């Protein structure tokens, strides 16, 4: 920010105002200050730190807590940060001469870039002072003026009310009488409050509910920091119905204590964080609890791996974003010690406390019961570090134990060895290997070092191959690491495969460990853009189009073996039909079937960028009920729920959870050998109950609950890489349709609402999953081998540039695909929409249909493009062997 105007208007030899020169202090969140200024006219100076200066506005009547009252705010010159501490007299005759008193000061935040919002003319922000709290708006006026004019007004939140700035003057240094008269404020001012308390929700007596839980007892809460329970790191998540699986939030562990209504926040190692996160302090105070002890994780953004650097930047004052404390445990409540209560009951009570009302800075950490492997997979898909698995029947025990286990996502790739560090202690050979990856600008770029995972034999083998090395780096290094100055560097020749847990702030590997030496690879191989995924089972893309086209033709033309294949397929189809009726499974109907649920929190914003609320989502699903319900009714179902909206963490659920009364379940065997109660929607009431539970997406199986081992559809998901134009995706869909038609298979089209298209093949009477999976994989691989420049059959994002991934993995028992007419948890609220093949040419984008546009499209639509799909009789029996 420029402070030239500030300097030009002042003579620092005559005024006590601070002269600019001090840089913004690091490690401190942006501050705000409001000063009461009795100059020629009495006004309030409203200042927000943006960068290294205070953006400033003169507000004649001061801020109002009434959202209907919009106060004029005249933009004035930027002030230095030192001005936040200024109080006193500016000499008469000097610019702004008169008395300045500090009215309020604190930190402020906004969700996004404040400079960009100010440039657009609308800044939404929150204040965390003693007198000014909650959400506010600054909106630029369109009226022409010498100085830009804005409107300052209160957001419609829990703090809104009739208070005016002049009601909060208690504790503010009054001006001399002559300044008060000269500034036009000779009348007595109101001085009622020195601070504004957090608006507590209606106080409830939680003690009775807490004492009713098994293991609860009366007791005092700790008055300071306490030792938290910790999780033990494991390689794979535990299985079994007793385990609750939560997302592993990538943030800072925070413990909260409330005593006599006063909130204090503690870091894991006992440091007082109450002042660092005032938004969390105020949100906890708004719960209206007399005493409590809570455990959670402070996050920014969604709390995923990529958001950890954002959290650090917010706390250090470098960036702005909303901070949220995700709560996952409740150890004490209103005089009742809950540490001995089983976790499942503690969390249920915690959810009730949070549902009673709080601001947007608290969130409940939801969980999935059983199916740890699936929870871990979904966490990775959503960009989280992993999961924390907890025994639902156990008490809270400080310290590390097997009752809590964390499973972190391991990524892996191949790297060139470009150096090594000296060994330490009893280590022989070397300390760590220095790694590099190919870089288009510099050839090779340093990627980090790996020092764990080596056997003694590997240490000896590598030490003999590394040589002495040199002190000059052999690759481009853009990292500040003193240890690298003492390292030995070699040319990139050797290749190793490494596990790691994400990429750090300096673009180096986090917590790497050796997976394997790769004597079969050379460093030059890593620069090959067509190399396959890492690992011993990797395959290189390539081969001539003539050879691979022959394989595709083999799938399309089985030739003389067709009769034998058809006969074998008929036997498989008969077996699938027998399994459909013979397999015994427990089907439990919903207790409240047919009774519609009531909508709560209709104004909760679920799509913040678009303003769509929970009521909008509710109305949408009621509108498309006749179209959506046939797509999911009677099928095992997975859903994506977003209790805090799409800007917060969403989670995947496929098992029944407490509170669901209208949704049926089916007991199904799982790959782990156990079984689980899967969600099944049977009617509109069950569907809307899931919407009431903040479900945005519906993902059914490709089979019915009464015949889960028989697939009745094949789904090919065309997922383009970042450089693939949508026109290429549309061409690929048409190519798939033509190839399927050669196999005498009719297909249907759906826009995914994401990046791609779904080509769906109905099966009637259906096929067993083994055959369906073989066919889908064989078809995708044949197409990929025929045109390797266009298609890819493996999920590696690293290889997906300029190619379309043919995702056939949705064609297995337990796999799901998004339902037609389901919303997607993405900006603009797109819809997975079935369309006719004749609509494809004029389709502009895969997320063209939205919550707002689909109801009108249905009213204008003459014919369902998937009409008659269920009556088509076709299966995969004749291609059973050819597709493999």
UniProtKB/TrEMBL annotation:
<dbReference type="Pfam" id="PF21686">
    <property type="entry name" value="LigD_Prim-Pol"/>
</dbReference>
<keyword id="KW-0464">Manganese</keyword>
<dbReference type="InterPro" id="IPR012309">
    <property type="entry name" value="DNA_ligase_ATP-dep_C"/>
</dbReference>
<keyword id="KW-0238">DNA-binding</keyword>
<keyword id="KW-0511">Multifunctional enzyme</keyword>
<keyword id="KW-0436">Ligase</keyword>
<dbReference type="GO" id="GO:0005524">
    <property type="term" value="F:ATP binding"/>
</dbReference>
<dbReference type="GO" id="GO:0003887">
    <property type="term" value="F:DNA-directed DNA polymerase activity"/>
</dbReference>
<dbReference type="GO" id="GO:0003910">
    <property type="term" value="F:DNA ligase (ATP) activity"/>
</dbReference>
<feature type="region of interest" description="Disordered">
    <location>
        <begin position="169"/>
        <end position="200"/>
    </location>
</feature>
<keyword id="KW-0067">ATP-binding</keyword>
<dbReference type="InterPro" id="IPR014144">
    <property type="entry name" value="LigD_PE_domain"/>
</dbReference>
<dbReference type="GO" id="GO:0006310">
    <property type="term" value="P:DNA recombination"/>
</dbReference>
<keyword id="KW-0808">Transferase</keyword>
<feature type="compositionally biased region" description="Basic and acidic residues">
    <location>
        <begin position="517"/>
        <end position="531"/>
    </location>
</feature>
<feature type="region of interest" description="Disordered">
    <location>
        <begin position="514"/>
        <end position="604"/>
    </location>
</feature>
<keyword id="KW-0378">Hydrolase</keyword>
<dbReference type="InterPro" id="IPR014146">
    <property type="entry name" value="LigD_ligase_dom"/>
</dbReference>
<dbReference type="GO" id="GO:0003677">
    <property type="term" value="F:DNA binding"/>
</dbReference>
<dbReference type="InterPro" id="IPR014143">
    <property type="entry name" value="NHEJ_ligase_prk"/>
</dbReference>
<keyword id="KW-0269">Exonuclease</keyword>
<dbReference type="GO" id="GO:0046872">
    <property type="term" value="F:metal ion binding"/>
</dbReference>
<feature type="region of interest" description="Disordered">
    <location>
        <begin position="1"/>
        <end position="29"/>
    </location>
</feature>
<keyword id="KW-0548">Nucleotidyltransferase</keyword>
<dbReference type="Pfam" id="PF01068">
    <property type="entry name" value="DNA_ligase_A_M"/>
</dbReference>
<keyword id="KW-0234">DNA repair</keyword>
<dbReference type="InterPro" id="IPR012340">
    <property type="entry name" value="NA-bd_OB-fold"/>
</dbReference>
<protein>
    <recommendedName>
        <fullName>DNA ligase (ATP)</fullName>
        <ecNumber>6.5.1.1</ecNumber>
    </recommendedName>
</protein>
<dbReference type="InterPro" id="IPR012310">
    <property type="entry name" value="DNA_ligase_ATP-dep_cent"/>
</dbReference>
<keyword id="KW-0227">DNA damage</keyword>
<keyword id="KW-0239">DNA-directed DNA polymerase</keyword>
<dbReference type="Pfam" id="PF13298">
    <property type="entry name" value="LigD_N"/>
</dbReference>
<keyword id="KW-0479">Metal-binding</keyword>
<keyword id="KW-0233">DNA recombination</keyword>
<dbReference type="InterPro" id="IPR052171">
    <property type="entry name" value="NHEJ_LigD"/>
</dbReference>
<dbReference type="Pfam" id="PF04679">
    <property type="entry name" value="DNA_ligase_A_C"/>
</dbReference>
<dbReference type="GO" id="GO:0004527">
    <property type="term" value="F:exonuclease activity"/>
</dbReference>
<keyword id="KW-0540">Nuclease</keyword>
<feature type="domain" description="ATP-dependent DNA ligase family profile">
    <location>
        <begin position="316"/>
        <end position="408"/>
    </location>
</feature>
<keyword id="KW-0547">Nucleotide-binding</keyword>
<dbReference type="InterPro" id="IPR014145">
    <property type="entry name" value="LigD_pol_dom"/>
</dbReference>
<feature type="compositionally biased region" description="Low complexity">
    <location>
        <begin position="537"/>
        <end position="571"/>
    </location>
</feature>
